[in-house]
Q: What sequence folds into this?
């Protein structure tokens, strides 16, 4: 039974991937891509990686899908045709790589170091009970700090690209044409989304969840609000910019301030590690949500890049 | 207090500062920050010279559970080079960006994130951490390329992004395979564990492909010229001098750590051949370009080819030849960094003054802008590999290594490369010294000329003081 399910999942993934490449219409490609993301999330569940499944569903399928659909909308406005796919060479490369991977997987050496075991042994000292959170926010928190910087840079680049273009476009679409059904639905849904985001963040300390997943859910809520024409971001434009950097700011400040006590960079005081991690995760959730939302929010209006 | 984390905290803190408080004079603040970083790098250099290499466990978790940073001779040399080039580029940018009001706002945050990523990569001792560093580097570099928002810059930036992402994915797949096979991501541990089997070799091949893509080695170079040639002058300087070197640095570390046992001589010779082709093709394209910045950008493609000669000269050859190749390559990396940054800054000043981009527009410029042209000339001496310059010493070491290992074909490549370089450099000079032309120029701030001159002077000075960095540049331990 499970084998049947797994093979259907695998075939479905392949079919969706093929659909992404061979659809004539960009819109269909994107829909296939979203379906691919959802199947991939299911695959992660089957591989017993629920954290990855949550992230894949929220970011891979959800927000990326929204951004891609939005981009198609702009392409259509400018009557640009989808470029022709050169699929033969990539396909051959993929098949060759897949064969090599399968072959090498069979000849896999026995790993002499077991990191999961080390993580399990050090878990009591980490301040949290969920090993993934312990790795992300404690053992390898330096990676996470830089990842947050990557997200922030993405938002900064979007702002830089947008600065010249969007000011005009935004004012031109100022008049509101709010759909009453969507608006009513969204206004009831928004508090629930917020609650779910906070729950996922809180749950991260003892089960799958955490800042990235919570942030993605928060972002989804904000996107929904914007689509329903609520535009809460207009009330606090400058606050939004501070909010984008706030998570990184707090993370870096905590990471550095512990050095004053003579500890190495990013070492939480032993007794309070759990509280430190929860605090950092809370601000990260907030900022990740805003960053992901701002990537959507920054997409240009009617303008096209100018020639110079 | 340990200096290693400071080299990460300073750029990240300044990135936030310039992002959140744009009304402050962020250019001047940046200059203060970068001087601080230069001082820290110099002190760390001194520490390593006196006490030897040191490592730093972040969060007090030792590898493989945590991430370890490593500061050895090569690392501190690269940190010092980064800070030195960055301080001059920041000084240049303060004056250059006066003409670019809109771009200035976002230049500084991206500049600082880029520096943080570079410092992180030089210090990293962990394969996945290197991936994160590469991502941060790529994204800030792409952002800097597209700063102007012009159509050609956006196209170049997007192309750069796609190429770099493909490289990142290949690298990441390799990292995942190595982690699956050995259970650790720490470079130091991996170098003693690695063992010849299909999975390891596939992983190393994938990582090599990804890093070659990011280093823009022929034939994977086509993204580089539009990105480097189309960006603002200080951005081009940083991209060509530092950013492409970081992926090469990872590649070199990986190959030297894995060593002769894992890396087949044929693959090393193949990489050398790609390098030779890059030298010839890049040089020929540089000669053919009509825009002067594109000429300098193609020159980068050619000069990156010399770095690839490390592999055939070090893998499977004698100890002595490998040491010479390693020193020569790293000295080339340094002197090209300074010389190419100087070249881009000088050319940027010329383009700013003349207001046109083509080589022929520079006719008669020698009488009007002698200093910028002089800086370009000094930098060219090092790029061509004429004595006395860092470039000459580097090529001399590489040539000795080639002779020692009896690989005469690489000697021929080195000589032909210098001739091609001379041909495209003299093309610029023959135009700029035309006497009958009288170009109209806008006056530019003398600080612009001064910055280019300073970097060019350092490239030349490396010809006299090459021993200082070379002494520190020991090979990774298992090669000795």
A:
């Amino acid at each position: 039974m499970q084998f049947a399910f797994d093979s259907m999942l695998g075939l479905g993934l392949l079919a969706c991937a093929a659909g992404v490449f061979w659809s004539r219409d960009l819109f269909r490609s994107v829909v296939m891509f979203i379906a691919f993301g959802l199947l991939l999330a299911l695959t992660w569940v089957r591989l017993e990686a629920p954290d990855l499944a949550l992230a894949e569903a929220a970011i891979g399928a959800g927000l990326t899908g929204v951004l891609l659909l939005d981009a198609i909308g702009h392409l259509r406005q400018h009557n640009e045709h989808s470029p022709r796919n050169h699929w033969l060479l990539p396909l051959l490369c993929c098949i060759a790589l897949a064969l090599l991977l399968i072959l090498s997987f069979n000849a896999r050496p026995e790993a002499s170091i077991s990191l999961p075991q080390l993580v399990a042994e050090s878990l009591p000292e980490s301040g949290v009970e969920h090993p993934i959170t312990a790795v992300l926010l404690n053992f390898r928190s330096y990676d996470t700090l830089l990842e947050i910087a990557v997200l922030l840079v993405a938002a900064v680049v979007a702002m830089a690209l947008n600065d010249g273009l969007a000011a005009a476009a935004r004012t031109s679409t100022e008049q509101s044409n709010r759909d009453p059904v969507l608006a009513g639905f969204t206004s009831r849904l928004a508090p629930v989304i917020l609650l779910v985001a906070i729950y996922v963040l809180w749950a991260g300390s003892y089960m799958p969840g955490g800042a990235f997943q919570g942030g993605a859910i928060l972002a989804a809520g904000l996107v929904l609000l914007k689509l329903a024409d609520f535009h809460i971001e207009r009330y606090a434009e400058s606050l939004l910019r501070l909010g984008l950097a706030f998570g990184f700011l707090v993370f870096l400040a905590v990471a550095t301030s512990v050095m004053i006590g003579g500890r190495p960079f990013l070492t939480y005081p032993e007794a309070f590690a759990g509280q430190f991690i929860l605090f950092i995760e809370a601000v990260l959730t907030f900022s990740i949500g805003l960053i992901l939302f701002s990537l959507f929010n920054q997409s240009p209006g009617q303008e096209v890049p100018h020639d110079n | 207090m340990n200096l290693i984390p400071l080299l990460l905290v300073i750029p990240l803190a300044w990135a936030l500062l310039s992002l959140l408080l744009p009304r402050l004079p962020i250019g001047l603040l940046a200059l203060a920050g970068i001087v601080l970083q230069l001082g820290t790098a110099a002190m760390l250099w001194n520490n390593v010279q006196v006490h030897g290499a040191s490592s730093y466990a972040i969060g007090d978790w030792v590898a493989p559970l945590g991430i370890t940073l490593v500061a050895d001779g090569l690392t501190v040399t690269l940190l010092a080079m980064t800070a030195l080039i960055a301080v001059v580029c920041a000084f240049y940018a303060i004056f250059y960006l006066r003409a670019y009001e809109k771009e200035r706002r976002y230049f500084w945050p991206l500049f600082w994130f880029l520096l943080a990523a570079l410092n992180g990569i030089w210090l990293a001792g962990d394969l996945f951490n290197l991936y994160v560093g590469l991502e941060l580097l790529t994204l800030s570099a792409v952002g800097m390329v597209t700063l102007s928002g012009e159509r050609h810059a956006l196209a170049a930036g997007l192309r750069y992004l796609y190429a770099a992402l493909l490289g990142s994915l290949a690298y990441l797949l390799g990292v995942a395979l190595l982690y699956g096979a050995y259970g650790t991501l720490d470079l130091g541990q991996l170098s003693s564990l690695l063992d010849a089997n299909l999975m390891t070799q596939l992983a190393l091949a994938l990582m090599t492909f990804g890093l070659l893509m990011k280093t823009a080695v022929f034939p994977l170079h086509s993204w580089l010229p539009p990105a480097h040639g189309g960006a603002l002058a200080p951005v081009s300087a940083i991209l060509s001098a530092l950013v492409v070197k970081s992926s090469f640095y990872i590649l070199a570390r990986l190959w030297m750590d894995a060593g002769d046992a894992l890396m087949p001589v044929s693959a090393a010779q193949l990489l050398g051949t790609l390098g030779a082709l890059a030298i010839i093709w890049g040089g020929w394209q540089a000669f053919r370009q009509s825009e002067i910045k594109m000429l300098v950008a193609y020159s980068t493609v050619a000069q990156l080819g010399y770095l690839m000669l490390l592999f055939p000269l070090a893998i499977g050859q004698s100890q002595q030849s490998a040491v010479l190749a390693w020193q020569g390559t790293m000295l080339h990396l340094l002197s090209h960094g300074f010389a190419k940054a100087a070249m881009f800054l000088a050319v940027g000043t010329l383009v700013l003054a003349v207001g046109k981009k083509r080589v022929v527009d520079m006719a008669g410029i020698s009488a009007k802008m002698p200093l910028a042209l002089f800086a370009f000339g000094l930098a060219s001496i090092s790029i061509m590999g004429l004595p006395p310059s860092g470039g000459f010493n580097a090529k001399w070491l590489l040539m000795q290594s080639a002779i020692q290992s009896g690989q005469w074909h690489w000697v021929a490549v080195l000589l032909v490369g210098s001739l091609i370089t001379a041909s495209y450099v003299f093309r610029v000079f023959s135009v700029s010294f035309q006497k009958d032309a009288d170009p109209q120029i806008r006056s530019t701030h003398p600080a612009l000329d001064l910055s280019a001159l300073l970097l060019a002077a350092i490239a030349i000075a490396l010809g006299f003081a090459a021993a200082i960095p070379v002494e520190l540049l020991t090979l990774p331990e298992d090669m000795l």
